[in-house]
Amino acid sequence: MTIRGNILVADDDAAIRTVLNQALSRVGHQVRVTSNAAALWKWVAAGEGDLVITDVVMPDENAFDLLPRIKKARPDLPVIVMSAQNTFMTAIRASEAGAYEYLPKPFDLSELLSIVGRALAEPKTAKSNDKPAENSEKMPLIGRSAAMQDIYRMLARMMQTDLTVMINGESGTGKELVARALHEFGRRSRGPFVAINMAAIPRDLIESELFGHEKGAFTGAQHRSSGRFEQAEGGTLFLDEIGDMPMEAQTRLLRVLQQGEYTTVGGRTPIKTDVRIVAATNKDLRSLINQGLFREDLFYRLNVVPLRLPPLRERAEDIPDLVRHFFELAEREGLQSKRVSRAGLDAMMRYPWPGNVRELENLVRRLSALYPQDEISEEIVLSELGSNSVTPQLPASESVLPENVSLGQAVEQYLQRHFSSFGAELPPPGLYQRILAEVEYPLVLAALAATQGNQIKASELLGVNRNTLRKKIRELGVDVFKATRHRQVS
User: Fold this and answer.
1) pLDDT, tens only, 358-412
2) What tens digit of pLDDT does each residue of 1-22 get?
3) Topology of domain 312-389, per CATH?
4) What residues contact 347, with CB distance under 8 A and at least 6 apart?
5) Strand pairing partners for 375?
6) Coiled-coil annotation: which residues (predicted)?
7) Phi and psi (nearest 5°) for 462?
8) Which residues are CB-contacts of 477 (< 8 A; sequence separation ≥ 6)?
9) CA 319 from centroid of its chain's CA atoms
């Protein structure tokens, strides 16, 4: 049953007020709109409204200054915050201030209506929010693209939970930055953040590194040593490159996650543990499961909240912001202030960035150190990237394949290029599952997009059971919000 409510809307933009008024009224809500914070506060203080939708920037007051007063006066009143300042810190400040949800502009109307429905249906219990807004100038993640907005919103939801998060992304996409952001802006920020890279530790030492060892546990163990679990007590343990963990260590890790305790190598007394686990990988763990290299039960223990970090080529519009940020960092380190010409930025945005953000950061540091010019030209950028690596940018409507090419032929061409990229060698094992996953993700995403996120219609369209579709959405990490983002309001 749909719950109708009295919605208070505050936005300085008359067009947005009109759109929201019409959309909310159409589904049966009573709506009052205003262009300023003073009128909104007057309504709230008078006990009006079941839900508030407000922009951050208002002509008379910032919503982040108003929100604490609203939460103090009416702690059960859900507040949805909108903003065109689409940064990670905006999402975090909204969460810290007690907002029910944060929506970056432009937003999808169907998504907004869904959030309104959830907020009105929830029991009226105040959210605990005793963490002060701090470090507002720190910007651990950069970018305002739609892909990054989805990441920011997911992170904002995860900050005040201890749910285990699995971050999947190519090398150089910033997986550890995301893990640190979850820790530093979350409820465990006062505890330690401990990172361990599974690929960098010898296989026979991983258990000792994770759980510690007792004196005399093995040859060379002359003293007791604490492990990463003990070091991270009360904080966050970041397990990087989890796909490289040997099978015997996986078994022990699974036992810790199931029982909440561990024993040191050579020890007998169980030790209780209180850590949040954030894992990361650039590998296809399902493929490793099929090869018998990764435990399926451990995968589901770690994959509670899957988070896919997009490669830089999928968010090229963030490159100018990233370049400015890295130049600022270089300037703080004593290097000369610099900028890149518009043509140079365009060349960067056409480059595929196989090394992702890490490669871009290295390029900017190189440009800062090696070139005396205040403005870096396109010629310099091309020479550093290698002009053959920068491909012409195709219009969005133009396909890289002829229209008469079938799906099978397109896959065949892709596979030919894939095999040729390895020269005389063969691709890594598990190709079958990797290719299926490559096709499955866009297929499910396209079906959800075509049905406006309606999972019943999408399951009918695909010809699969609804429960099967839900399982696929969860396993593949398909972003339903991304799929439903069709009608945009700006």
Assistant:
1) 999 999 999 998 888 899 999 999 988 874 455 444 444 444 455 566 777 778 7
2) 567 889 999 999 999 999 999 9
3) Helicase, Ruva Protein; domain 3 (1.10.8)
4) 378, 381, 382, 385, 390
5) 339
6) none
7) -80, -20
8) 168, 306, 307, 308, 441
9) 17
Decide: 380 and 367 in contact? Cβ < 8 Å.
Answer: yes
Q: Which of 209, 215, 212, 208 is nearest to 226 (CA)?
A: 212
Which CATH superfamily is 6-147 part of? Answer: Response regulator (3.40.50.2300)
Residue ranges per structural domain of the chain: 6-147, 161-216+224-308, 312-389, 407-489
The CATH fold assigned to 161-216+224-308 is Rossmann fold (3.40.50)
Note the pTM of the prediction, 2 decimals.
Answer: 0.60
Instruction: Take residue 282 and report the two structure tokens written for it.
Output: 């650039």
DSSP 423: T
The tokens describing 289, both together, are: 């499961």
Residue 133: which residues within 8 A CB-CB, separation 6 or more?
Answer: 64, 93, 96, 97
407-489: what CATH class? mainly alpha
DSSP string, 313-369: GGGGGGHHHHHHHHHHHHHHTTPPP-EE-HHHHHHHHHS--TTHHHHHHHHHHHHHH
- C-alpha 208/C-alpha 450 separation (Å) is 50
| Residue corresponding to tokens 């370049």 | 323
Q: Number of helices and strands (H, E) in the chain?
A: 21, 16
151-162 in b/e form (b: 16+ CB < 10 A) is bbbbbbebbbee
Q: Tell me, what's the pLDDT at 139?
A: 52
Other CB atoms within 10 A of residue 307 CB: 23
Q: What is the DSSP letter of 213?
A: B
